[in-house]
Amino acid sequence: MKLDKKDLLLYAVTDRHWLAKDETLYSVVEKALKGGATFMQLREKNLEEEAFIEEAREIKALCARYTVPFVINDNVDIAVSMDADGVHVGQSDMEAGDVRAKIGPDKILGVSAHTVEQAKLAEAQGADYLGVGAVFPTGSKDDADEVPHDTLRAICDAVNIPVIAIGGITEENTPELSGSGICGIAVISAIFGQKDIEKATMRLRAVTKEMVEKK
Q: Which branch of life, at top level (predicted)?
């Protein structure tokens, strides 16, 4: 699957921590897709491999129905074995060049970057897009250092691949990212932590579109 920059407008990252008692990951992902999420990343830290693969296959099929790209967070082997659209890796995971060699030329490769140097290296090693953050304080990653907005802008200026911002982004603070050069945002709780996931996704997509178009 070739990546279109527009696919990165509203990038949803799953987290079962937010699941209500009567919900499944599948049901909340479908609500986010109905609301207009344009990209889906399956992020599982503590699931057994067999259960992970089964869940990944189901959610991949769901995303395909909505023609939304589906990638796996960190786990390159699972992404390859269940034929995900791609994979997203962090700085402490496998080197981007090694990941690209493993997944082949046609899969989507996303890489987390926190500095201009990391961003340029990831691009050189075959990344299709970059996730840069945390752009605001966040509770979902204990080790996430904040990336100043000046650095975010500098990264966008330094590379030719699309950049999305991640970390602590909400409907309220999204407008603060306008003019940075990003083409979208990645969120967890701003979608999956909301009471009405579909409505929250719709509102967030509208706000993000406005922010991206504002120079």
A: Bacteria
Catalytic residue among 141, 153, 203, 209: 141
Nearest to 169 by CA among 190, 184, 148: 190
Tokens describing residue 193 = 């932590």
What phi and psi values does residue 10 have, to the nearest 5 degrees?
-130, 100
Tell me the binding residues: 41-45, 73-74, 93, 112, 138-141, 168, 188-189
* C-beta separation of 210 from 190 below 8 A: no
pLDDT tens digits along 10-41: 999 999 999 999 999 999 999 999 999 999 99
Distances (CA, A) of 157 to 122, 129, 162, 180, 215: 15, 14, 10, 9, 14
Among residues 31, 60, 100, 112, the one annotated as catalytic is: 112
Instruction: Give the separation between CA 55 and CA 8, rounded to whole angstroms.
Output: 23
Between the alpha carbon of residue 60 and those of residues 22, 68, 69, 212, the distances in Å are 22, 9, 8, 27
Q: Note if 112 is an active site residue.
A: yes
Tell me the pLDDT tens digit for each residue of 84-100: 999 999 999 889 999 99
Which of the residues 5, 16, 43, 203 is marked catalytic? 43
The amino acid at residue 47 is: L
